[in-house]
Please model this.
Amino acid sequence: YYIAKTSRSDQLPAWNDIQGKPSTYPASPHSHPGSEITSAVANATNADKVDNYHIEDIQNDAQTRVNNHASSKQTHGISSGYYIAKTSRSDQLPAWNDIQGKPSTFTPSSHTHTPGQISPQGAGSGLDADTVDGKHASDFMNGTKAYGNVTYTDSIAAGQTLTKNIALGGNYKHGIAVLINPNLSQSGIIVFFGKDNLKTLVAGYCYSSTTGRPWGTAWSRRFVGSVTSDYYGYRVASNTKEVIVQEIYISGNNLRIDFKNLDTTAHSLNVTIDWEVW
Model:
């Protein structure tokens, strides 16, 4: 603070010397008679209204107009078929519960899961893998074996093939069969087979036209062109060498055996087969 100066010789403050004076001064609370009011208000009694409406009348009318406006479904350039949306939220943002026609489920976007995210796992989970290391169940060896035996005495017409199918009752990949002609004590072969007919292998006897006697040997279906012939496995399927075993292999869930009559006359089978598959 400092010592003030004045332009008056009596040292009293002069009005013109005062700096920063306000240009107007708020009036203290007071009243006026109606005769002193010179404005559009007709008299002091009507001064609390505007055009004969109290302020609360104006507010109520404004709210009514807002409500009526909000109830209007189509306005403000909304295209045909669409309406102004309403919401139950005071902040005017859309509320989830106000949305109509929501789907009950949502299709997920394409995604993957790690094995650890699949639950439950193991026994009782109901999970069924399509393959194991790229192999289907049909590619694996059956854990059980099946056995059987059969005797065939059917007649085969000249030049015809007779197919026999033995139902195995399951999926098997390998097998072995022993074929014997009951009428020939020296006949008999062992056949090793699978699902590929060309991979059938045979051990048994051949008939030597030179010595007139059979002798033991082994051969393959691929090499001979059939399981037996008029030389390999001589007369194992019939009393005549003209009836041969063309095929033995696993076809689907059956053991398939094809017999063929190479002669120009009919002949009958006479063969007993014991088989095992796994």
About this structure: Residues 99 and 105 are 15 Å apart (CA to CA). The two ends are 117 Å apart (CA to CA). The mean pLDDT is 83. The chain has two helices and eleven strands.
